[in-house]
Design goal:
- This protein is an alpha/beta fold.
- It folds into 3 domains: 2-109; 140-191, Alpha-Beta Plaits (2-Layer Sandwich), CATH 3.30.70; 198-386, Vaccinia Virus protein VP39 (Rossmann fold, 3-Layer(aba) Sandwich), CATH 3.40.50.150.
- 38% of the residues lie in helices and 16% in strands.
- It has 15 helices and 11 strands.
- It has helices at residues 2-16, 23-33, 39-53, 64-75, 81-86, 88-91, 98-104, 127-133, 149-158, 194-198, 224-233, 245-257, 302-306, 310-326, 349-358; strands at 140-144, 164-165, 170-173, 189-191, 214-217, 237-242, 264-267, 282-288, 330-340, 361-369, 379-386.
- The longest helix is centred in the C-terminal third of the chain and has 17 residues, at 310-326.
- It starts with a helix and ends with a strand.
Length: 387
Amino acid sequence: MKYFSHLDTAINILQQYKEQEPFAHFIKNFFRQDKKYGSTDRKNISHLCYCYFRLGHSLEDLPVEEKILTGIFLCDHSSNDLLTYFRPEWNEHSHLKLSQKLLIINYPFSITDIFPWQDELSNEIAHKKFCESFLIQPDLFLRIRPGKEETVKKKLSYANILFRQLDESCIALNNLTKIDSVISVNNEAVIQDYSSQRVGNFFTLTARSPQFTAIWDCCAASGGKSIMAKDKLGDVDLTVSDIRESILANLKKRFQQADIKEYSSFATDLSTANCQLPTSLFDLIIADVPCTGSGTWSRSPEALCFFDKNEIDRYCQLQKGIISNVIPALKKNGKLVYITCSVFKKENESMVEFILQNFSLRLEKAELLKGYDKKADTMFAASFIAD
């Protein structure tokens, strides 16, 4: 039967994958090289692989096939052909809640084994709930741009796309929703995680700074935070930078779609002592720094499975280098917003302490933006004021 073939193919793919690239790219290339798989086949095989990854570091002694079946049972909420054949006693209970399913599994399984680095977590993370979130596919989130609210909602309704509105500009959809043909992405709405949207609350004026005119998004990546800053703060003098010109080329395309034409950009490695720095000072510096990305691993669970704990310290050193280089470019009474998509204390609260101990900045606000209970990413943000 076809689903047996799907299982064998998934096992083969998992045995080949060594995290040399994101799994989404790897499996796409796998199917590109073997044209015999139709769209339904590709979808089903991919799902089996992700069910395996979502179990993280639990059940590591189980054969791959057994771990896939367990992942299907815990992650899915409807009948499955593979479970019907291999685990009919599980399949008839596929609709149950996770807590009930865990009582049925005939393995010594602990949910907290999924993410084994509890001692490294930021203070406010509930470890068990965080582990449970890996078994749930996150939502797709849109941030509606100013003045486009009714347009976007009407277009989604006309296309019969179900959505939840979390606030006046944030919409949640099923993760598999195809919206590119429905709305004008980046012009009418930006694809941006809910927690990432909440970071925008840190881009606010201070009592001592009546107006932000000069903004530097120093690790701009694809420019999502820059677009949000422009939407929230209006007509500002924007500078963006990142480590490679290719990153800025992609940002340029996105800015064109977002109708952002006036900005400056340059490429530099801000973690190094001899990096290029702007000659002017800034009212607001956005530092969405490179990090482990551990708060986003429910979207890319393969990263959870292959993670090396030593990477935490490597990223911490990288972050300290970047922050040490950008702070001198901050005006008096200017604001630094430090951001990670990490759940690790060393990248979050410990970095706040590093900044306070080494620079003349005072902490305005720090917050762990928990998304694991909202089908969203978990992030950390802290804002500082230069005295």
